[in-house]
Queue: 4 jobs
Job 1
Amino acid sequence: MEPLSEKQIRRSLVNCSKGEASRLRMPAGLAGLDWENYDYLGWIDPGAPLRAALVAPGPRHGSDGPVGIVLRAPAVSASSATRSSLCSICFTGHASSGVSLFVAPLAGARGREGDSAGIYLCADLACSLYLRGLRRPALRTRQHEETLTVAERSARAMAHLDAFLAKVVSAA
C-alpha cells in the first residue's frame, strides 16, 4: 500500500460526514508505519474504542483515490476463548475474542436512514500483518495450513474486502 497522509485518509471516508471524519483519531504511529506490509489500513479509534476505520488503496468503487469507511466496533464482551472464529477477510483463525462483528453505515441516504452492513474481521483489524506472519493470533489450537503464497492470500483478502466495500459504497 502506498503511504497516505492524514488528509488523504479523512477525504477517503465515504460513509460519514466531514465532521465525523475530522473527529476520527488517526492510528498511533501513522507517520512511521511500514506501509509495504499493509494491503489496507485498519484501526480502532484510540479516543473512541467503539469506532473503527479502514482505508483501502485506490482507485476503487468509482473513486480515483483510496476508499475509506468508518465502522462501529463491538463493545468488549466476556466471550469464551475456547471457540475459534475465522476473519472474513484474511481467514485467520482466532479465539472467539479475536474476531469481531464490525458494522458500517451505508454511504449516502440509506446510511443516514440507519441502514448498515456487517462483517466479521480480526478484532485488531491487522489482517495484513497476519497474512505476512508478522503478527500471530492468540489462538492456542493448530492453525490451518495454506499453500497459497503471501501475494495470493493478499489478493484473496482484498477481493473479500472489495466485496464488502461495494456493499457499503454502492448504497450512495
Job 2
Amino acid sequence: MVYTLGEAAKATGKSKATISKAIKSGRVSARKDETGTFHIDPSELHRVYPPTASSEQEETPANTLAKTDIDGTIRELQARLESAHERLSDKEAVIADLREDRDRWRQQATALLADQRPSKSFISRLFGR
C-alpha cells in the first residue's frame, strides 16, 4: 500500500505542502506517475514524520458501531418513514379533493353550454309576449 500526497498528509497530521516540500528537498523519497500523482511508501514517510494517533485509529475497522447507535439510527429512520407516509397520504387526499372540484366545475360548464334555448327578441320581452 502506498500513500498519495493527501493520504500522507492525513497519516502524519501535516499539510500537503509540507509533505510536498519534503519530497522536493529529498528528505522523503516518492515516485510520480504520468498523471502527476505522488506515490509515497509508508515506511519512507514515517521515517521522517511519525504517524499520528488518529491515523492509527483509522486503520482499525471503522464498521464497529455500538448497538445503541444502530438502534437509535433505526428508530430515527422509522420515524422519518412514518412522517413520509403521512405526508404522502395528505397529498393523496388533496389530489382527490381537487379532482372532485374539477369534475363539479366540468359538469357545471357542460350544463351551461347545453342550455342553448332560443332567446326572445327584444321587442317580445319589452311587451311581454
Job 3
Amino acid sequence: MSRPAVLRSLQTIVPDTVLRQDEVRDVFGSQPDLGRLAQRIVSTSFNVSGIDTRHTVIDELSLTAVTENPVFFDRATGGLLSPSTKTRNEVYVREAFPLFVAAARRAVEADPDISASDITHVITVSCTGFFAPGPDYEIVRSLGLSDGVQRYHLGFMGCYAAMPALRAASQFCAADQDAVVLIVSVELCTLHLRSSEDPDTIVASSLFADGAAAGIVTARSLATAVPGLRLDGFHTAIAPQGESDMAWMIGDSGFEMILSTAVPQIIGETIIDALRPLYAREDGLIAAFDGGTIGESVEHWAIHPGGRSILDRVQERLHLSDAQLHPAREVLRENGNMSSATVLFVLKRILEQEGAQPGERVAAMAFGPGLTAESALFTVDRSGTRGA
C-alpha cells in the first residue's frame, strides 16, 4: 500500500510596499476620467471589500514614494498612468524572479529533512506575467537543483491554479514514492490595476494584490515531525453559466480581469453540486454534507477569498461558523486577493494560527475562470515517519 503525499514546509512572502485600502480608494475615486456613477462604484467596492491592507511590488504606488519618472502612478498629480502590457510584463520579469526564488528557498530551508538535492519535481504557478526560460528554470539554477529535475509551469489559470498544482504533486508522489515536489506560486496582480469606469475593472482594482507562497509535497518517510497536510482527494467542477462572468484576457494596457457581481450568486447556486462528488468518496462525510452538517465533520475551511461576498455566500450555503471562515477572512483583510497564492496563505494560517490538531480534516476550495471550482480534502498531519 502506497504512502499518502503530505504538503509540508509552507512558506509565504508579501512585498514590502503596503497599500492601505482607504488610501487606494481615494486615489482611484479621484481620477479625472471617472463619472459620478463610477466614483460611487469605486467607493462601494473598496469599502465593502473586507480588505484593510494589500501589498505590491510597485514602490511608486506608495503615497510616500518619490519617483522621478513614474510609470504607474504620478504622485505629483495624483494620476494613475496606463503603461503598455509590454512595460507591465517587463516589471513582472524583474520582480517575479526574486520572489519565485526566495519562496522556493524558504520552503526548502524550512524543512529539516529535505535539501535541494532531494527535489525531484518543480511546479511553478502564475497568471500575471510571462517569461522564458521561466520561473521553474530560474528556481533550478538559483537553488542548485539537479538539471534532471522535472519542471512544470501552470500559467494563466487564475485564482484556482494552486489546487491543480497540489493535485499534480500528489499524483507524482503516487507514481514515485521517493518524489519530492516543490510548488511555488507567485502572483503580481497589482501590475494590471488601472483606472476605468467599467464595474468589473473597478471590482478587480479593489481586490487584487501581490504575494508568493511555496511548499513541499512528498510521500517519503521522514524523521522530523513538522506541521503538514495529508492530501486526501481533489475534485474539479465547472459552472458553465459563469463562463462570461469570470475571465482573464490580455489587453494592450495590461491583463484585463472580468469579475462580475454575479459571481457570488453563481457560486451559491452551484456549490452544492460542485462539492458533492468530493465528499461522496467517504460515507461519513457525504451523510453530513447531504444533511447540511458538513461543518461539524470537517473542522477547518481554506476557502479562497476571492472577495467578501464570495466568502459570505459559501458560509451561508454550507452552514459554516464564523470561526471556520476566520482564516480566509483574515488573509483577505491583511493581504487582499493574491490570485493562486492566496489559498496557500489560508492553509498556512490554519496550520500555524488556528489551532489545527492532528487528524482534523481541512476542506479547501478555490474559484477561477470558467467558472471553475477546484476543491480538495486534507487531513492535518504532524507525524514525522509515516508507515506504509
Job 4
Amino acid sequence: MSDEAAPGINVTAAPGVAFSYRYGFRLPAARIAAIQEAHAATCERLGIARCRITGMRYSRSEENEITATLGFSLAPDVARAFGRDGIRGVEAADGMLLDSEITGEDAGARIDQLAQAREAASAERAAIDARSGVTTHEARAELERQRAAATGSERDAAAAIAEQRAALAATPVVFEYRSGQAIRGFDPASPFTRAADLAVASARWTIGTALALIGLALPPLLLALLGLLLWRRVRHLLPAKAPRAG
C-alpha cells in the first residue's frame, strides 16, 4: 500500500492550526499485540520531549475478536511521519490501513481573539483603578465588584490562551487496531473485500446460530432420554397382566 493511502497535511502548510490524527488498522489477531508494542517502542525511542504515550487498550471478545487502541502526544513536526511509519509497520505485519482522519482547530485565530479579550479586561481593570478615589461605601463596593469581574475575565482569557498554545505544541495521534485478514491489492471498500467480509460474518453467524440451537435443544432431549430409560426400567418391575380367559 502506498503512502497516498494515508493523506496528511504538513504543519508548515497551515500555521496556527492544531491538528489531531487518527488511523484505523486491520491485521491478523495474533499480531496485534506485537505491532502495538512496536508502535509504543517507536514512541519511546523518540524520547518524552517528542513523544508520550497517553493511553492504551487491548480487548478480546467472546468471539475471539481483538480490538485495541494506542494514543500518543507528539511534537507537531514529527506527527505525520510517525503515522506513515506506523502504517508501514502494520503492512509489514500482513495488515492494512482501513481509514485515516485528520482534524484541525484554528488555535492561532482563537489565541488572537482571546488576547483581545484579555487586553479589554485589563483596560477595564485599569479604568476601575483610576476611579478608586471615590468616597462613598456603596461606590467603593461597586468598584470592587467590577474590578473582581474584570480580573476574572483577564485570568480566564490568559488560561485559555495557554490551553490553545499547548494544543499547538503537542499533536494527539491515535492508532486503532482490529483483528481481521488484510487483502492486499484491494481497496477495503471494494466489492471483493466486502464479499469476503460478508462471507466470514455469515459463517460466524451460521456457526453461532447452530451452537445456540444445540444449546437450547440439548437439555430437553437429554431429559426425554432419561425419562425413557427410567420408564423402561420401571416397566420391567411391574407385575405382568394375567391373560384373559377365552
